[in-house]
Amino acid sequence: MRGIFVALIFFCLTGAGSHAFGQINFSGYLKNYTVIQDAINNGPLQLDRSYRMQNSGRFMLDAFNGNQVWQLHYEVGLDSTSELQRIGESFLTPARQSYRLTDLGSTIGPSGKKNIVPQNLDRFNVQFQLESGDLTIGRQAITFGSARIINPTDVFLPFDVRTLNTEYRIGIDAVRFQKPMGQLGEIDMGVILGADGKPENSAVFFQLLTNVSGSDYQFTAMRFAEQNLIGAGIQSALGVLGFWLEAAYVSGDEDYTRASIGVDYAFNERVFGMIEYHHNGAGSSNPHNYLEKLDDSAYTAGGVFLLGKNYLIPVISWQQSTLLTLSLQSLANLDDGSMFLSMNAEYSLSDNWYMGLGYYHFIGEDFNFSNEIPNDALFEFGSEYGSNPDSIFVSLRYYF
């Protein structure tokens, strides 16, 4: 299987054989995130207020040659933060499977320093536009789901809701075929290749998308990391409300169900709101069990990042003018009473320059370092979000 991607690299470097590309587009962005994070003062865990700067550049090459489309996206940056903060973040984050057959190093140069240079070959694929459908081979973005915020059927590296830069979905290595079915339907199937092409690191999926009487339906079946998933979703209208429902059942190392249901509503031309309820059967209603959950296959391979079971997520956005957009989102863990509140402002400085301002506020009980916890544990979660320090960030983005 690795030979597929070796062949892809060869043909890309040789210009798809002897044929010249008819059109080549080069684009990208430069981004800066400057983050100020509150101090942490909780028993033995003491950290001063910290400052972090994330700089990244994404360079995108798209080439067209007859019925072929070649895509290459590479991202490189400079991340400045304290080593202690980076260690703490990695300790509380599950080691997720990359769903990549092989890859570049995640950083250029040493990674245990204050300043690191992350890199990511995020897209490297060719799409053959055939009469029967589109065949895409290589590193690409693949998403699933009908819900707006948390997608139960989306297991391949979804973003955590606290991630700052979510503009481009993380690419994975796959062979994918998409066949149109009628005007609004599609059959979507493929093989995803993880490390060394081993079954425990890879996946296969089938998805049917169709439209009946103005409602969109999605049916999904997949096997990932030796787990099985069956899912379905609908997007429709309930009077003046937009409506969605998505659910998935996973069986294998552990059996669990996830589901999201929600509605949205346009109050006027400028104000838009939605609310979603999410049930996470892979999580726990007891925060004392959160830490051990991070080792479960649902978190390492199944795209789950929420630790509790029941969540309510209201969102409201206001386009104050053609240049300024304001948004407010809350993610409430209904089991442990903790909450993540996100406030964002986006302003267009010009056609190519954009500026953002955001504030993350967390509510809930902090870590528990008492002597009553088990002897083999250093601490327990008091709640999902209570241990997160508040932060404020400013972003500056340039597109070319």
Assembly type of the chains comes to single chain
Total DSSP E strands: 21
Q: Helical amount among residues, as a percent range?
A: under 10%
Percentage of residues in strands: over 45%
Radius of gyration: 22 Å
- CATH level-four homologous superfamily name: Porin
Report the average pLDDT across residues: 91
At the fold tier of CATH, the topology name is Porin
Count of runs of 4 or more consecutive helical residues: 4
Shape: globular
Biggest β-sheet, characterized? 18 strands, antiparallel, barrel
Order of helix and strand elements from N to C terminus? HEEEEEHEEEEEEEEEEEHHEEEEE
- Structural class call reads mainly beta
> Could you name the ranges where pLDDT drops below 50 across 5 or more consecutive residues?
none
Number of domains: 1
Task: Report the CATH C-level class.
Answer: Mainly Beta
Characterization of this structure:
There is one protein chain. With 400 residues, this protein is mainly beta. The chain has a single domain (2-399), classed as Porin, CATH 2.40.160.10. Helix content is 7%, strand content 52%. The protein contains four helices and 21 strands. The protein has helices spanning 2-13, 83-91, 290-293, 297-300, and strands at 23-37, 40-42, 45-47, 50-65, 68-80, 107-108, 115-129, 134-140, 172-181, 185-192, 203-212, 215-224, 227-238, 241-251, 256-266, 271-280, 310-319, 324-333, 339-348, 353-363, 391-399. The strands form two sheets. The chain has an 18-stranded antiparallel β-barrel. It has a two-stranded antiparallel ribbon with strand order 2-3. A hairpin with a 4-residue loop joins strand 14 and strand 15. The longest helix has 12 residues, at 2-13. The chain is globular.
